[in-house]
Every structure is written in structure tokens, then in C-alpha cells.
Amino acid sequence: MTDKQEAKKRKIIIHVDMDAFYAAVEMRDDPSLKGKPLIIGSLPTERGVVATCNYEARKYGVHSAMNIKEAYRLCPRGIYMHPNFEKYRQVSHQIRAIWNDYAVKMETVALDEAYLDVTYSAGNIETAREMAHTIKERVRKETGLSCSVGLAYSKTAAKTASEEKKPDGYFEILTEQDFIDLLIDREVRSLYTVGEKTAEKLNKIGIYTVRDIQERKDDVINHFGKHGRLITDLAFGIDDREVTTYKPEDAKSISREVTFQENVDDYELLKDVLVLLAISVERRAKRAGLRGSGVTLKLTYTDMKSITRSGLAISAEKAGTVYRETVTMLDQLDKRPVRLVGAGIYNLSPDEGRQMTLDDFLEDADADREQIIETRLKEMGEKYGLDFAGHLEDIYSGTTMYRTIEYMRKHTPEGKR
Question: Does domain 3-17+88-235 have CATH number 3.40.50.720?
Fold first, then answer.
């Protein structure tokens, strides 16, 4: 095969999407939950949204990203649970290992979803079809979970195919014409990248279906510019995007934030929370093998106004640096009640072969940063009656951090609240 023929070889892409992933893992681990509406996210008494829900809950109109109060109104007899992200990550590692056995390139979208480029590992549609069914079988056998799989000529078509027969489905869209025939008379939101707001704008100019987009291509491009060209291309089944393997160093930032169940006006408590968030950021950076050179602080006030402050810092990935810099930023802000606080790092790069800085020569900077955290954890232990240093692993497992922070909020010593 010549280079030109190789370049023109038609893509074969598989899109795999786990079915109601978080809820499915919980039902697998606790069979008594099966057949009951299960909503994973915040509890009805808390602020927050639905992370996911099982198909029994969806019959009531509950869906991901819905406000938890609305979910409870629709489904008051549902079972509500906090997510256990540590457990979901472990299962995600299992399923990704299975998927990776078949793909030349794999682009993960979330813990439970990925595009697999099998153009050369399969070589033809028949073999790719066998791979797709084998993936479904292996996922079920090795994890006890189901997934939906789409086989297609492009990323958009593959994702559309995997959605077509959910749950536990399989569907193929092998040509642009197959894609058009399937979607031509469906609503514009059936197209990738057309969200609720874009759909509303399209509807305002009289465009409701994919057929309308095709027939009024110029109007769409004139109204939406570059995005409009993407929309019209997709309406004709055109999508040349490559499956791109994610690299940790491609991440733009690493952050951790927490939303309080009641507004907080105690800024000393916020500083205590920043200690835990800083440690979490450091752990995430270390797990990804990344370092940073900038620190960010995020606050959302009770009027929903969010502000972000940032600044450059040496060894920004260290918990002590994240804590020190975010506290400095916090002290410069208006002391109004807040509902959310977050900490993060940016300007990421692989944590290897770092050039030594002046700080490294003049003092043991790492030791100083570590001492800041150790000292603060000891102070917080005495303040709240908790063994932070001895139970950090537990604190960062699943939702335990949120529960710990809520405990801190409720047990702040008198005179501090």
C-alpha cells in the first residue's frame, strides 16, 4: 500500500460508552439496589446536581446535571447516594485496559467513555465488528457491567451509533449516507456539538431539523461562523477529526473545589479547607506525573458571582505552595459569605528533569513547604478533634473529603463562625 493509499484508508472507529456507569457500579456491588430508581450525586437535603442515575430513575424524567431538588420533586421515592469516585476510577482502569487491547489509538472522554481507532488493528469492518462484540463480552465478564458500542467511519458517527441502542446496545453507521439517512429528520440536538443553547438559536431562525440545516447551510454559517461550518459539515456526515490519545501533560490545569451545604463567612475555616484542597491537588499532580508553575484560587459568593485569582509560583504542584499562595490571594479578597472554594495549579509540564531553581540552592524549599502542611494539619487536628495526619488516605477516598469539610464547618469553635 502506497503512502497516498495509506492516508486515504477509511477510518474505522469504535465508540464505547458504559451504561449509567456510577449507578451500574453501585448496583453491581449492592444487588438490593437493582430495579429501584437510583440517583448518584448530591442528597436531596444538599446543594448540588445529579451526577448520573440508572434507567429506572430516568423513567421519572431525572437526568444528569439536573438540580437535585428538581430530581427529588420528580422522584421522591428514589434512592440518593453520594458518588464514590475512588471506586469508579478503579473500575475505569479495568475497562480501559480491556479497550486498549484493541485500539491503535484510544481517546478517553471520561471515566466511562472512549473512542478507539481500530483502522489498522482491525483492518476491515468484519474484524472490527468482531472486536466490538468481544469488547462488550469482556467488559461484562470481567467487570459485571454493560456497555453500549458504536462502530462507524468517524468519531461523531461512532458516538451517535453507541447512543442509538442504549443500554447494552450495538449499532453501526458505516458511511456518510447512513449517517444522513438516520438523522435527516431528527431535531438539531441529535448532532454532536449542538447543545441546548445552540438549538434555541437555530430554532429562532426557523431551523429545527438536520434537514433544515442542510437546506439552509449558508444561513447557519452566517449566524454561527466557524461553529456553524462544523454544524453544517456534521449535518452532511462530514467529520475528519482524528482519535487523539490523551497525555497527562496535555492537561491545562489540575484543581479541586468544594461546595458548602451552607454559606460560609468564616475565612479561617476557608483557610483550613484550603489545606485539604492543596494536598488533594498535589496528589493529583503526582499521580499524573505533572508539575506546575502557577497557582489559582476560586471563590463563588452567595450571589453566584465567581472570581478566580492566579499567580506564578515555583514548584506550584507542592501542597505547601498551593496553600501558601491561595491563602495570600484569599486575604486580598472581599470577606463576603461564600458557597464554593477551590484551589488549583496551571502551566503544567511533565515532572521530570526539572531545572534547579535559586530556592533549591539557598534553602530546602520542599522541606519548608512540607513543614507548613504538617504544622497546619496538627493545628487543625486540635481545633476540630480530628486525626488529619493519621487518616489522610481515608479523607481523600470517595466523598470522605466532603464529609470531613462539612464536619469542620459544623464544628468550628464558638466565636469563629
Answer: no
